[in-house]
Every structure is written in C-alpha cells, then in structure tokens.
Design a protein that fits this description.
134 residues, mainly alpha, 6 helices
C-alpha cells in the first residue's frame, strides 16, 4: 500500500517538482540575498529580480520535467497565463514575507528565506498541479 502511494503520479510529480523547485528556489534566494547584501538593492527589488529569473527557468523546467505527461498541452497560451498567475501569487507571498520579516519587524535579510523555502513552494505545487498543468 505504501509502495503504491510512493509510486503514484502525484508523488512522482511532487518529487520532481521538489528537486527542480529546490534548485530554482536556491538560485532565487541566492539572487535575492546577494542583490541586497552585495549590490545594495532594496529587498523587494531584489526579490523581484529573483522572481523574474525563476519564472523564466521554472516554466520550462516544470512543464518539461516536473509535470511531464500530466494534463493536456494543447492550450499553451492558457497554460502560460496560469503559470504566470500562480507564480505571481508565489511572488506576492514571498514579497509579503520580505516586508513582514525585514521591513516591519526589522529582522535580518535572511529571515524571509525560511518561509520562502518552506511555505511558498508547497502552495505553488498544489496550484500548478491542479490548475496550471492539470
């Protein structure tokens, strides 16, 4: 029973999404952190740059790898718009964490990395699986 659940399409997609997403998230959070600490960017500007780079990479990586064989691929315009909408939600959530933890609470610039890595990816996985690529 457990082995069947581990081999389910949703579990395989989650594993692929986690691997691809971890790489994109790590890159994005590194861009955010170095943008703030080394380039002197405003934290919200830096997370915006990270977002744009992550969306461009993520559209192809998740479409081709994470959700390969899942859902129809005949409406690329609609799928692209849904992908952008889900990622805008993720961007808004990450921006909220930056605002709350750095600007409102005065915490160090690394604090938002924690919820950006632990909360946002799970929310966007569910939205991508059921709406974008579903």
């Amino acid at each position: 029973m457990l082995l069947q659940k581990l081999n389910s399409p949703a579990t395989v997609q989650l594993i692929r999404y986690a691997i691809i997403g971890a790489l994109i998230t790590a890159l994005g959070q590194a861009i955010y952190y170095f943008g703030v600490e080394w380039a002197g960017l405003d934290p919200n500007v830096s997370i915006g740059v990270a977002f744009l780079i992550g969306v461009a990479i993520g559209y192809f990586a998740h479409g081709w790898i994470s959700f390969a064989g899942h859902g129809a691929r005949d409406d690329h315009a609609g799928m692209s718009l849904r992908f952008i909408a889900v990622n805008l939600f993720g961007f808004a959530l990450n921006s909220f964490f930056v605002w709350l933890l750095v600007k409102a609470l005065g915490g160090p610039t690394w604090w938002p990395i924690v919820p950006n890595v632990l909360v946002t990816p799970f929310a966007t996985f569910l939205m991508h699986r059921h709406w974008t690529f579903g």
